[in-house]
Amino acid sequence: MEVSDDVLTRDVRTVADLEALYASKTVVATTCLSLAHPMFARGRKFDVCIIDEAAQAPQLAAIGPLFFAEKFVLVGDPHQLPPVVVSDSA
To answer: For 45-81, how does the pLDDT look when each residue is reduced to its tens digit (9 = 90+)?
Structure first.
């Protein structure tokens, strides 16, 4: 079974198609900031939210996904790289 972006989105032509695809999945992988997309604001809750490399995520980026789950797991090593901030004004 091939699982790629092309295969998963082959039949997606509209926003409604994308929302239906997303709603049909039991596991969704995304970035912390991608959860700001309106598609995720439809009230769907997950059982668990897992944030990998949590030590590298800025606090404001990591807080958002936690509102989408009943339980959450933050995985990361605080002794490795700090959050990456590219903006001069941050």
So the answer is: 888 999 988 888 888 888 888 888 899 998 988 787 7
pTM for this entry: 0.65
CB burial of residue 22 (10 Å; 0-12, 13-18, 19+) = middle
- Using alpha carbons, list the distances in angstroms from residue 77 to 21, 30, 46, 59, 60: 34, 20, 25, 15, 18
Q: How many CB atoms lie within 10 A of CB 38?
A: 8
User: How many other C-beta atoms are found inside a 10 Å radius of the C-beta of residue 15?
Assistant: 10
Q: Which residues of 53-81 are buried (b: 16+ CB within 10 A; e: fewer)?
A: ebbbbeeebbeebeebeeebeeeeeeeee
